[in-house]
Specification:
The complex is a heterodimer of chains A (about 260) and B (about 625). With about 260 residues, chain A is α/β, with parallel strands linked by helices. Chain A has eight helices and nine strands. Chain A has helices spanning about 45-50, 75-85, 100-110, 115-130, 145-155, 175-190, 200-205, 230-240, and strands spanning about 1-10, 15-25, 30-35, 60-65, 85, 160-165, 195, 210-215, 215-225. In chain A, helix 3 packs across helix 4, helix 4 (about 115-130) crosses helix 5 and helix 5 (about 145-155) runs parallel beside helix 6. The longest helix of chain A has 18 residues, at about 175-190. Chain A is globular. Chain B has about 625 residues and is an alpha+beta fold. In chain B, about 70% of the residues lie in helices and about 10% in strands. Chain B has helices spanning about 5-10, 15-40, 40-45, 50-80, 85-90, 95-135, 150-175, 180-185, 200-215, 220-255, 255-260, 265-275, 275-315, 330-340, 370-380, 405-415, 445-450, 470-485, 495-535, 535-550, 550-590, 595-625; strands at about 320, 345-355, 365-370, 390-395, 415, 425-430, 440-445, 455-465, 490-495. A nine-stranded mixed beta sheet of chain B has the order 5-6-4-7-3-2-8-1-9, with helices on both faces. In chain B, a hairpin with a 7-residue loop joins strand 2 (about 345-355) and strand 3. In chain B, helix 4 (about 50-80) packs parallel to helix 19 (about 495-535), helix 13 packs antiparallel against helix 22 and helix 20 (about 535-550) packs across helix 22. The longest helix of chain B is centred in the N-terminal third of the chain and has 41 residues, at about 95-135. Classes of the chains: A alpha/beta (about 260), B alpha+beta (about 625). The interface of A and B includes residues 51, 54, 94 and 108 of A.
Chain lengths: ~260, ~625
């Protein structure tokens, strides 16, 4: 579904900085992949490149066999709002809009009928347990709720690929678990392919496979067996092998 | 939620963000409308306005419109800059650039139409005030009634809706970016310090010194020729002055840890360097705009003073009459006296006989008896003269006489032949405007006056000084006098002449004053805009710092200094520019306008200080509210 071939990213500047080196990655349809690594290892850069937020220096990214970076600006916009969904650490909801309006925004941009949008919004809100806050503004809801709204916004158009950048980074452990369970549930039910960048072993343990990046290169990958618990332990072990600062990997991130 | 609803929600639910842009736009509309209202006023349309004044109005209207365009464009672009992150996010969610344009277009039109409507509304009130001021300050015959200005409303509405339409298309250029990453991270990035280059710093100094040098050196009509090149050179110089010198100074200060790490200095300077690029641009614009305001008002004010003072100095009497050949002098003098008594005005009067003689110079020279001269001098409390025998006094050419014949030197060399064969030698030269004679003349001793030969020309000079009468009375008398002497125009009243000049220049003066005020207020509005676009950042910053422990007094000090630099750096430059410009003006007229210049610049400086205190008060309050 997603193929990344020989991906390189160099940030130009007075001192050019190599963020990614020869990354190769393949993700199957419906797979849930976690990406982990120390601070500055290049995980978010990788996600941004796949998300078409940033442009690669060399190498190809193919989504369903097509390279979105070669699309024209307008086609790219269409591609984003139909095929991709995003969830961010700091939610990135528009504070001028209500919760409901935030959720339907991708459909609005696509010019869908109001009735359809309303139906879809109600459905997804029920599923995520946010029906009661639909009329509220973004500053009136809690962080956990905000992230659920963001997930709803990312899911409402049934994207092929959902990209999440530290979705639990700003949440307490209870909300983190809720959001991760929700994502995992959506992944299983809707068969949505997911890519999750995270610091937290707990969050990563919900995925099918975790890829470790260090200094801009692929370091290793581990697959989930039957038990989430053993998978969690395996992740912790790999992280300690990965080195870096222990503080980078606390299960709940100090904020 | 359709797309249009989405765009509208964005405006109405985020008022605080839009309010600054809205107010600047509304302000521009208000100014233009007020001016249009004035230009279309029936009193000016039907009144006997000189066509040059109407043309001036038209040009001024054009200037205000062009200025509004740039003003709104600037406001909009800084408004959009502050929303880059929002645009980045929307584009990430799949908003196409066409949709971004459509959204900003809808927003702009909503704001534009509201701003135009409200601007016209407030303009109606504002113009009433302006008309009242104009009526009182200026000499305008027609009373300026408040009228319902259909034409002005239509013109303003159409012009500004058009303007917003055009500006909406400019949005494309502002948002013509760049990668999404840059948009999304826009609010976290410093706009960067512009680089200080030694070459440009030196260039700035050369340009400014050169511009100033030329402006101060040129004399007379050269000033007009030098005007535009000097203005361009100084504008470029000012730009580099702010972009280069400010960088240079702040860098130096930051390097010096003794200063930079002292108390709250670090906060102040780090902040200044962070906003350097925006600040330099704002400084430059405010300085130039203020200079235009100072110069426009200074020029007109000075020019009027030059004209009216010129008249007053040329003739120190209330009314003066010079007889023409073959006139019934007594009857004419009686006419004036009758007018005076008709208007119930008391006046002291003197009459002297002016006799002109052939003395060997190239014009018949007036020779005045000392006692007659002294009679006139007494009338206006001027110094008396006492020429000894054989010692004539030469009175130099009248200063209103612009040619440079130096007739007084000729007279000093010439001797006056008397009937008894004796000759009188000129002894000294004075300058006086007691007799309104253009060319140099002699004053001689009363005894010798008897021995003068036959004069070649004679005329009677009568002068009146009105002691206490209201201005209106004086003008009324003057008008009657000038009517009854319209054949030769050989009698006139000073007060009436000043009144006529004031009347002719009233509208022009008003336009100048108005444009000056508009520019000055706009400069203030730029500063306000600059300050408030940083409010969010400042609030967050001070919030963080107060947690570390910052007293209220220290907070106030930092804000105060920050605001003071913003307010006074450009104004000081503008004041220097303005002073140089007005000095050049003095050279053009060859007339001393120091007092006028000082008044104009002083008033502006004072207003700026008041403005500073007001803005500082509110800004500090805003910051403290967030803590």
């Amino acid at each position: 579904m997603l193929q990344v071939k020989k991906l390189n990213k160099v940030y130009q500047g007075k001192v050019p900085y190599r963020a990614l080196t020869d990354i190769d990655l393949e993700v199957e349809e419906g797979e849930f992949v976690g990406i982990m690594g120390p601070s500055g290892s290049g995980k978010t850069t990788l996600l941004n490149l796949i998300a078409t937020i940033d442009e690669p220096t060399s190498g190809d990214i193919l989504i369903d066999g097509k390279n979105p970076h070669l699309l024209s600006r307008n086609k790219l916009a269409k591609f984003r709002r139909q095929q991709l969904g995003f969830v961010f650490q700091d939610f990135n909801l528009l504070n001028t809009l209500t919760v409901e309006e935030n959720i339907v925004l991708p459909l609005t941009l696509d010019g869908k009928r109001v009735k359809d949008m309303k139906e879809k919004a109600d459905m997804i809100a029920k599923k995520l347990g946010i029906s009661h806050i639909m009329e509220k503004r973004t500053y009136e809801i809690s962080g956990g709720q905000a992230q659920r709204v963001a997930v709803a916004r990312a899911m409402i158009h049934r994207p092929k690929l959902l990209l999440a950048d530290e979705p639990t980074g700003n949440l307490d452990s209870k909300s983190s678990r809720d959001v991760m369970e929700m994502l995992s549930h959506i992944n299983k039910q809707e068969k949505t392919t997911m890519l999750l960048v995270t610091h937290e072993a707990q969050a990563a343990s919900y995925s099918d496979r975790v890829i470790f990046i260090r200094d801009g290169r692929l370091y290793s990958e581990i697959h989930r067996g039957d038990s989430q618990k053993t998978f969690f332990q395996k992740i912790i072990d790999t992280l300690s092998l990965l080195g870096g600062n222990d503080n980078d990997f606390s299960s709940v991130r100090p904020s | 939620m359709t797309f249009r609803q989405f765009a509208l929600h964005n405006v109405f639910r985020n008022k605080r963000l839009y309010v600054a842009y809205f107010f600047s736009s509304m302000f521009a509309v208000m100014v233009f409308f007020t001016f249009a209202n004035f230009a279309f006023h029936p009193a000016f349309q039907e009144g006997d306005m000189p066509s040059s004044a109407m043309k001036g109005m038209l040009v001024a209207g054009g200037i205000i419109y062009v200025f509004s365009f740039f003003f709104i464009l600037y406001s909009m672009s800084s408004f959009l800059q502050s929303r880059k992150r929002e645009f980045g996010l929307l584009m990430l969610l799949g908003m196409s650039s066409r949709q971004v344009k459509r959204m900003t277009f809808i927003e702009n039109m909503v704001i534009g139409i509201f701003a135009t409507t409200f601007g016209i509304g407030f303009g109606l009130i504002f113009s009433k005030v302006i008309l009242l001021i104009a009526e009182n300050v200026l000499v305008i015959d027609e009373t300026l009634n408040f009228y319902f200005p259909t034409k002005a409303i239509l013109l303003s509405f159409v012009s500004f809706v058009l303007l917003f339409l055009v500006i909406s298309f400019f949005v494309t250029f502002v948002l013509r970016t760049k990668k999404l990453v840059e948009l999304i991270k826009a609010d976290k990035q410093s706009k960067g310090e512009p680089k200080a280059s030694l070459l440009l710093t030196i260039l700035a100094a050369i340009l400014l010194i050169g511009g100033y040098g030329v402006a101060l050196y040129v004399k007379g009509t050269q000033v007009v020729i030098a005007l535009i090149p000097v203005a361009i050179v100084v504008i470029i110089g000012t730009y580099f002055f702010f972009t280069q010198l400010s960088v240079f100074v702040i860098r130096r200060l930051k390097k010096n840890k003794q200063i930079f790490w002292k108390k709250t200095n670090m906060l102040l300077f780090s902040d200044l360097s962070f906003r350097m690029k925006d600040n330099a641009r704002t400084f430059f614009m405010v300085a130039i705009i203020s200079t235009v305001a100072f110069s426009a008002i200074g020029t007109l004010f000075g020019f009027r003073t030059y004209l009216t003072k010129g008249i007053v100095e040329a003739t120190p009497y209330s009314i003066i009459y010079n007889s023409m050949e073959g006139e019934d002098v007594k009857a004419k003098i009686n006419d004036i006296n009758n007018i005076l008594s008709e208007e119930n005005v008391k006046a002291d009067q003197e009459v002297i006989e002016n006799k002109y003689y052939e003395t060997g110079v190239d014009y018949p020279v007036l020779i005045v008896k000392a006692s007659e001269y002294n009679r006139l001098a007494k009338l206006i409390d001027e110094d008396l003269v006492d020429p000894k025998e054989n010692q004539a006094i030469v009175v130099g050419d009248h200063h209103a006489n612009i040619n440079t014949f130096k007739n007084d030197e000729k007279l000093m060399k010439t001797k006056i032949p008397l009937k008894d064969g004796k000759e009188i030698q000129a002894f000294s030269t004075i300058s006086s405007s007691i007799i309104n004679e253009m060319q140099a003349y002699y004053i001689i001793n009363d005894n010798e006056y008897k021995y003068l030969p036959e004069p070649v020309k004679e005329s009677t000079l009568a002068a009146w000084v009105i002691s206490n009468a209201t201005d209106e009375r004086l003008v009324a008398v003057g008008e009657k006098v000038s009517e009854s002497f319209n054949k030769y125009n050989n009698a006139f009243s000073i007060d009436y002449n000043v009144y006529v000049v004031d009347k002719a220049y009233g509208p022009i003066l008003f336009i100048g004053l108005f444009i000056g005020i508009v520019f000055f207020v706009s400069a203030g509005s730029f500063l306000y805009f600059r300050l408030y676009s940083d409010l969010d950042n400042d609030q967050e910053k001070f919030k963080a710092i107060t947690k570390l422990g910052l007293t209220k007094g220290e907070l106030k000090k930092v804000i105060s200094r920050q605001t003071a630099i913003l307010f006074f750096a450009p104004i000081i430059v503008a004041l220097v520019h303005g002073a140089v410009a007005l000095t050049a003006l003095m050279h053009l007229f060859d007339y001393n306008l120091v007092r006028e210049s000082a008044i104009v610049l002083g008033v502006f400086a004072f207003i700026q200080v008041v403005y500073f205190f007001i803005v500082r008060h509110f800004y500090t309050k805003q910051i403290q509210k967030a803590l």
